[in-house]
Amino acid sequence: MLHVKDEVSRAHPALAGHFPGNPIVPGVVILGRVCRAVAEAHGAGVAAVPVVKFHAPLRPAEPFDIGFEPAGGGGVSFRVVRGETLIATGTVRIHAAAGLIAK
Q1: Domain range spanning residue 49?
Q2: Beta strands of the chain (E only): which ranges?
Q3: What CATH number has the domain bearing residue 50?
Q4: What is the number of structural domains in the chain?
Q5: Is residue 103 part of a domain?
Q6: CA 32, CA 13: separation in Å to the nearest integer?
Q7: Engineering a disulfide at 51: which of 35, 46, 83, 91 sits with its beta carbon 3.0 to 4.6 angstroms away?
């Protein structure tokens, strides 16, 4: 499994309205970080996000880890964790040009 460490800055523009006085990183921002990590690792963009589930909130400036591995059929399964807390799980599909070989 490949791992990427990340963190969303307190200054991220998506946090302004999500939620005032109790900021939570929007799921779409987390998913964007997952897609970028997968795309960089495989040399091709994400074509689809068929499955995603958010399990716990992520606060700004909390470090988190994105782990991902081939899932077959051009898919990549991922897990986002903060320490021992599961934040999100799911599957993304990358463009066929990436040459991902499922094992």
Answers
A1: 2-98
A2: 2-6, 46-54, 64-72, 75-82, 85-94
A3: 3.10.129.10
A4: 1
A5: no
A6: 14
A7: 91
36 found inside a domain: yes
pLDDT tens track for 21-78: 899 999 999 999 999 999 999 888 999 999 999 999 999 999 999 999 999 888 999 9
Q: And the tokens for 85?
A: 């807390």
Q: Quick check: is 32 in a domain?
A: yes
**Beta-carbon count within 10 A of 4 CB:** 18
Question: Quick count: other Cβ atoms within 10 Å of Cβ 13?
Answer: 8
Task: List pLDDT tens digits, range 73-96.
Answer: 889 999 999 999 999 999 999 987
Q: In this structure, is residue 71 part of a structural domain?
A: yes
Angle at Cα 75 formed by Cα 94 and Cα 73, nearest 5°? 110
